[in-house]
Amino acid sequence: MDTTVLQLHTGQTLVTDITSEVANFVSGKNDGLVNIFVPHATAGVALIETGSGTEPDLADALERILPVEDIYRHQHGSLGHGRDHVLPAFVSPSISIPVIDGRLALGTWQSAVLIDPNGDNPDRKVRLSFLPG
Amino acid sequence: MDTTVLQLHTGQTLVTDITSEVANFVSGKNDGLVNIFVPHATAGVALIETGSGTEPDLADALERILPVEDIYRHQHGSLGHGRDHVLPAFVSPSISIPVIDGRLALGTWQSAVLIDPNGDNPDRKVRLSFLPG
Amino acid sequence: MDTTVLQLHTGQTLVTDITSEVANFVSGKNDGLVNIFVPHATAGVALIETGSGTEPDLADALERILPVEDIYRHQHGSLGHGRDHVLPAFVSPSISIPVIDGRLALGTWQSAVLIDPNGDNPDRKVRLSFLPG
Fold first, then answer.
1. How far apart, in whole angstroms, are the C-alpha atoms of residue B18 and residue B26?
2. Which residues from chain B sit within 8 angstroms of residue C2, using beta carbons?
3. With an 8 Å Cβ cutoff, are C53 and A65 in contact?
4. Are C33 and C103 in contact, with CB atoms under 8 Å apart?
5. d(CA B45, CA B38)
6. Does the pLDDT at position C121 exceed 90?
C-alpha cells in the first residue's frame, strides 16, 4: 500500500487545511480511495469549506457540545482537555476520499482539514494511504 | 475503479434515502467496500432507520447543536446557512459499507441517507465508488 | 474479501473496547485498510482513549445532544430509545483503520470501541473487513 505520514505543527490552531498535501500525495496515481487517518486520541479530520467563517462557527458548536469547563472525568492536561478526548467520537479521525485519475474528487468548496482542539500537543501526525480501485 | 455519480433533487428535504440506488450500484459485483461520497460542503451521509420518526428527531438534535439563528460568521445564503457549513464536521460526507456477493451488508433497520439541511441548493450529487476486496 | 462478524454481548455498557479483536483479525495480513462496520441502527464505532474517564465524559456529551427524555417521535423501546436511533448520524457505524504489515496503525492512546447506548438490544454484531492496499 502506498502510505505516508505527514508531520504537522498545529500549535493552538483548531482547523488546519491539509488539502494540498493530500492532493500532492495522490497526484500521478490512478483511481482509488485515499484514506486520511489521524493517529491521535484528541483530534479528527473533516471536509469543510475554509476561509469563510466556518472555522469559528465550528469552534462555537464544539463549545455547545463539549464546553471548556471543569466537568470532565479525564483530568490530565489543561482545562477542557477532557473534551478533546471526546471529540473523536463525533469528529472521526478517519475519512476516505475518492480519487479519479490522480485527483481528489472533492466538491468545489470542500477542503480536507485536521480538527485539533488540543493545544497541549502542538505537533501532529496524519497518515495518508491510497487504496487502488 | 467502478464509480458513478447520482444526481438527486433534495429540495427542502433534510433526509433523502438512497439505499436502493446504492444497492443497485453494487448489484452483480463481488465482495468489497462501497464508498458513498457527497461532494458538497453543506451535506453529509449517514446510516439510520427511516420512516419511524428518526428524521424529525435528527432535525431536533441538529437544532440543539447548530440552531437556525443569526449566530454564524459564515453569512451567505438564508438564515442558518452558516450551520449547514458546520454540519459535515459532525455528519461526515463519506461513509463506506461492506459488500458481500453483490449485496450491501447492512443491518435490518439501516438505510443509507443523504443529510442535507441546505434548502438553498436543491440539487445534489453523490458519488458511489466500489473497491474490490 | 477477508471478512468476519464478531458477536458481542454489550448489555447496558455504552463503550465496548474491541481493539484486540480487530488486531487479531488483521494479524498476519499485509498492508491495507480494515473496515469496522456495525450492522445496527442504534450504535456506532469510534476511536478513543479508554480507561481514563472518557467513557462517562462521552455519556455526558451524548446527554447534551440527545437527552434521555420523552422528546422523540421514534417511540419504540425504553425511555430515550428514540435518541439511540439518532446517534449513528453523529457516531458513524463505519470506520476504517490503516494496517501496516499486519498491525493496526493506531496512535498510542487510540482504542477501537463500539458505542452502544441501546440497552434493549444487549447482543451486537460487528463486521470486520480487510481491503488489501
1. 13
2. 133
3. no
4. no
5. 7
6. no
Instruction: Just give the CATH number of B8-21+30-122.
Output: 2.60.120.460
Q: Which fold does the domain C2-132 belong to in CATH?
A: Jelly Rolls (2.60.120)
Of B31, B91, B107, the CB nearest to C41: B107
Distance from the B26 Cα atom to the nearest Cα atom in chain A, whole angstroms = 14
Closest CA in chain B for residue A109: B41
Nearest to C90 among B52, B90, B108 (CB): B90
- Residue A60, SS3 per DSSP: helix
Cβ contacts of C6 within 8 Å, gap of 6 or more: C18, C21, C125, C126, C127, C128
C97 burial class (0-12, 13-18, 19+ CB within 10 angstroms)? buried
DSSP 8-state class, residue C9: E
Domain boundaries, chain B: 8-21+30-122
Query: Which of B1, B37, B54, B87 to mutate against chain C (most C CBs within 10 Å)?
Result: B54
What band does A70 get if pLDDT is binned at 50, 70 and 90?
A: confident
In the predicted structure, residue B70 carries a pLDDT above the cut 90: no
Cβ separation B89–A61 shorter than 8 A:
yes
CATH architecture of A19-132: Sandwich (2.60)
The grid cell for B92 is: 461526515
Structure-block grid coordinates of residue C111: 482504542
Instruction: Give the separation between CA B42 and CA A1, rounded to whole angstroms.
Output: 32
- A94/C91 touch (CB, cutoff 8 Å), yes or no: no
CA-to-CA distance for A76 and B81, rounded, in angstroms? 37
Taking the model in full, what pTM does it have?
0.98
Distance from CA of A59 to the nearest CA of B (A): 9
Give the burial class of C6: count Cβ atoms within 10 A of its Cβ; 0-12 exposed, 13-18 middle, 19 or more buried: middle
- Residue B119: its pLDDT value, please? 86
User: Would you call A33 and B88 a contact, using CB atoms and an 8 Å cutoff?
Assistant: no
